């Protein structure tokens, strides 16, 4: 869990922190809850206080591709951009770990940009981070094999929860990689035989 006072850009602006608490709506979510669907209008911007969110793209056949995670203290740059321009969402956001989220109305986002330079610094930092993460995804899809992408994804999940045990089904991992479940199951079996992971029911442990 993170307090707004711990966010680097907000430390020098108690006034901004007060306004964020004043104007935002506080909500709690459980793992698997969808907080934003593709093509939905964006009315507010999420700031994650606790837990994490995964942001994905979905194709016409329902296949998903995981783009990045939003951790405690972070927000969704895609929501910023879509909300400011009154556009529909290009991504789906789903709770990865049970989460506490502040939702700031879009009109306040624009106001804070004018009134608080540190708010704009916060947005630019997130934009830079997400841009690098998206470039990494492109590189992995273009140049890495599925087994390497699978290991990278599992290590990200492990770092996110600070645990070697990942509570995800083969189908969930396949969806996030944009591949078939049978492919992920086969690769996980190979990784288990190689001593890289230990498999359980909807549970994978990195060794």
General description of the model:
- With about 210 residues, the protein is of the alpha+beta class.
- The protein has two domains: about 5-140, Sandwich (Jelly Rolls), CATH 2.60.120.10; about 145-205, Arc Repressor Mutant, subunit A, CATH 1.10.10.
- The chain is about 45% helix and about 25% strand.
- It is built from seven helices and eight strands.
- The chain has helices at about 15-25, 75-85, 105-115, 115-145, 145-160, 170-175, 180-195, and strands at about 25-30, 35, 45-60, 65-70, 90-105, 165, 195-200, 205.
- The strands form two sheets. Strands 1, 2, 3, 4 and 5 form a five-stranded antiparallel beta sheet that branches. The protein has a three-stranded antiparallel beta sheet with strand order 6-8-7.
- The longest helix is centred in the middle third of the chain and has 27 residues, at about 115-145.
- The chain is elongated.
- The mean pLDDT is about 90.
CATH homologous superfamily designation of the largest domain: Jelly Rolls
Question: Mean pLDDT, nearest integer?
Answer: 90
- Main sheet properties: 5 strands, antiparallel
Order of helices and strands: HEEEEHEHHHEHHEE
Q: Into which percent range does the helicity of residues fall? A: 40-55%
- Oligomerization category of the chains in this entry: single chain
How many distinct helices?
A: 7
CATH architecture of the largest domain: Sandwich
Radius of gyration: 18 Å
Number of strands: 8
* Form type: elongated
Q: Which strand-content bin applies to the residues? A: 25-35%
Q: Can you tell me the number of structural domains?
A: 2
Uncertain runs are none
CATH third-level topology of the largest domain? Jelly Rolls
- The CATH class name of the largest domain reads Mainly Beta
- Separation, N- and C-terminal Cα atoms: 27 Å
Structural class, by secondary structure, is alpha+beta
């Amino acid at each position: 869990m993170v307090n707004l006072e711990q966010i680097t850009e907000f430390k020098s602006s108690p006034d901004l922190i007060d306004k964020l608490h004043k104007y935002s709506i506080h909500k709690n979510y459980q793992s698997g809850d969808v907080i934003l669907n593709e093509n939905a209008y964006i009315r507010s911007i999420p700031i994650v206080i606790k837990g994490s969110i995964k942001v994905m793209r979905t194709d016409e056949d329902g296949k998903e591709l995981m783009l990045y995670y939003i951790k405690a203290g972070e927000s969704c740059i895609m929501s910023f951009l879509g909300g400011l321009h009154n556009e529909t969402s290009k991504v789906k956001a789903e709770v990865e770990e049970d989460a506490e989220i502040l939702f700031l109305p879009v009109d306040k986002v624009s106001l804070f940009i004018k009134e608080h330079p540190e708010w704009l610094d916060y947005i630019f930092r997130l934009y830079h981070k997400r841009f690098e993460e998206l470039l990494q995804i492109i590189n992995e899809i273009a140049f890495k094999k599925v087994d390497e992408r699978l290991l990278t994804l599992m290590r990200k999940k492990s770092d996110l929860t600070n645990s070697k045990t990942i509570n995800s089904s083969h189908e969930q991992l396949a969806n996030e990689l944009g591949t078939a479940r049978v492919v992920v199951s086969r690769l996980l079996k190979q990784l288990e035989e190689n001593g890289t992971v230990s498999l359980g029911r909807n549970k994978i442990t990195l060794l």
